[in-house]
Design a protein that fits this description.
By secondary structure, the chain is mainly α. It has 2 domains: 64 residues; 82 residues, no CATH class. It contains 5 helices and no strands.
Length: 146
């Protein structure tokens, strides 16, 4: 219960930082229909609501993080930093495939299946974001003319 509340509290602070950062985006008027502010603000509101729920009603189990779980959390944080660094240069599809495959493998999937799932998710997500939602998603250097 205590760990649930600590985790939820940390994520609640993170959701506030995400919203604060998104409010300070300064972009031209003709950027996109919703603009780049809407998506992070919506995500931060959803994250905050979930965190408040978890703080108010934590899980009743007595789970305590062990060394394996803490290692996976730290590796996950490092992977997300790498993702942020790769995102512009490598592009959405490549960066998301790499990160998705590593996460899938980290949580028990076989390497080939992890890669194939991540690749499919990346390609489908790219076309949903770029074509259906008409968002500017980086293609990267390798797929620059996509």
């Amino acid at each position: 219960m205590l760990y649930d509340r600590i985790f939820a509290g940390a994520l609640l602070v993170l959701s506030g930082l995400i919203a604060w950062t998104a409010f300070h985006f300064d972009v031209p008027f003709q950027y996109e229909p919703l603009g780049p502010k809407a998506f992070p603000i919506i995500l931060s509101i959803m994250l905050a609501a979930c965190c408040i729920w978890l703080i108010a009603k934590p899980d009743k189990n007595a789970w305590r993080p062990n060394k394996e779980v803490l290692t996976k959390i730290i590796i996950g944080l490092v992977i997300m930093v790498v993702y942020a660094a790769l995102f512009e240069e490598a592009g959405f599809i490549i960066a998301t495939t790499i990160v998705g495959a590593i996460f899938s493998w980290l949580f028990g999937e076989k390497p080939l299946k992890a890669f194939l799932y991540a690749l499919a998710l990346s390609v489908i997500s790219y076309f949903l974001l770029a074509d259906l939602m008409e968002l500017n998603v980086p293609t990267g250097l390798l797929l620059g003319d996509l």
